[in-house]
Design a protein that fits this description.
Length: 351
Amino acid sequence: MNKILLSLVLLMAFATANAQDIAIVSMNPADNSEIKSGAQQTFVIGLSVVSTINSGTQLSFQYAWNNDALTNLGSNMQINQTVSAGQKINVNAGLQIPSTPEDSAKLTVKVNMNNDQDESNNTLVLHYYVTETVAKDLEVTVVSPTADSDVKNWSSVPFSVQLKNVGKDDFTTGSTLVFQMSVNGTAQGNPQVVNYSGATLQPGQTNNMNININLPRNTPMGPMTVCMAYVWATVSGTTATVAEGYIGNNQGCVNLNVVMNSINDEALEMNAVYYSGNSLVVDLFNKEKSGEYRFEVTSLSGQQVVNYETSLPVNAQSKQQIALNTAVSGMYLLHIYAGGEFVGTQKFIIP
């Protein structure tokens, strides 16, 4: 008898330890929002952990429009660490919006979880106004550089991005934008909140925003896809919320080709390097805050021929003459350092 009771106690303890519960509590766009007919819309599903979820737990999602049967939404999601009760989980999901406009389209979304102790909170029902044109909608296009342009590493590349208001509301000066850049599909840093400083855009109007992107010296040579995303948002405290009814057109992308740059364009502008009258003439514009420069001339094998240090005026043009009285005919390398930092190299010939 005691053995049976002990088994029952152990079984109950095991069941309690594995009991877990998740609830679906919100969607963005929110209930009664406008959404664009026929579009592929990204929804953010807000989940609340009611009872601790164990690592390895699988989540799956289903959805249905109006009276359609529930269908699977994307692939299963695995929880890779224990999530304590009270925590929130946001999941992005792409849903196809009905192609026919209607005043109240019902969306049913359900989350499924193995070992869920309470499934009564797993379903959320919302209603949306499906329309051909939503109130807030920006379309983003990269204007320049143009597709397949060459851009140099170790330089600052100017981009021009066009914003077009394709919604019904005015996009006013001072409106909030969330900016995110990606390179070859990988996000670069965290999203940034910026204020739009251009003229108010009425429906159908456009304006260009300019941004400089620094490509470091170690940027890989060859094809590179750069995408710029600007999303109309509202900010409350430290939280930015998407305000647009459709965000499938908020990212402009361009395919570029990265080519080698031997000079750091942020430090200096090289106008000319040539040999004349037993001297190497270096004509440059110094962009550095420090005017301390070092010029080292070496053979192609790396043997130093001369090391020349000088102070140059800041933000000004300068022409230096470096004596090379003992150098013989051949090809050489000029290595340039500004404030102790290597900023470029250039080949030249002594005839």
